[in-house]
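Q: What would this chain look like folded?
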Amino acid sequence: MPELPEVETTVNFLKKKILGKKIKEVFVEAEQLIKKPSLSRFKKLIKGKKIEKIERKGKNILFFLSQNLVLLFHLKLTGHLLLGEWKKEKGKWVSLKEGPLKEDPINRFLRVIFVFEDGKMLALSDLRKFAKIELGKTKEILKELEKLGPDPLEISFEEFKKRIQKKKKSEIKKVLMDQEVISGVGNIYSVEALWEAKISPFRKVKDISEKELKKLFESLKKVLKLAIKLQGESISDWRKPNGEKGNYDKIRKVYRKEGEKCQRCGKKILKKTQAQRSTYFCANCQK
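A: My prediction, written as structure tokens:
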């Protein structure tokens, strides 16, 4: 699932490319992705709206539109937004340009396509059709996001500590992934940050010292900032809006590296199931 760095990369890219553009029409190939309003009302409301601002809130992408509307995207497991031009051939959308938009198979699952007045197009590619799109009044959409915790890159250590320690009996990895504690962190960057901090993902919060928690806070920020700089992780389905892969995969330390040698101590990276998710760690140097 795209996490904070992937969503931030998407937002940063689109800010430079589509701010000020007006939506001429929309093609919907998978109606179930439009969670609200109804499809007919969605199509009616979206036409002619201007994109005035683009922001990220946790893992959500928010387009602030004219007439006090917000278009929300949550990419879920396999979604990513692509910017290009496509035409429909034999029932399938085909990129008009060569390169990753056309050649990378993961970029071909176009489910919703927004057409701008200048002919450019923004498409949601989503293999498993789990993504979420909502359109509504600004106040209504923002109210839905009120339960989200703060961005880990924008809070102090004291705030981080306070929020984490409210879950004293929980395992630290589960807490890092709890979107009401802090928002934007998922499986990839929680295991990467815990490896960086030398803390076992299975440790209970109550057993982690303040010194260790400070190290985790610093490690989490370090990992997230580096991932943003490298424009995200594309080991699975996520791609940048130009269709290219992110570069974090080249430097990840533990995620999906079970059986490989730990880059710090040389012991094998292990994989265990934790809360129905795969957790990767080094049992030797993560205590």
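The chain has a mean pLDDT of 97.
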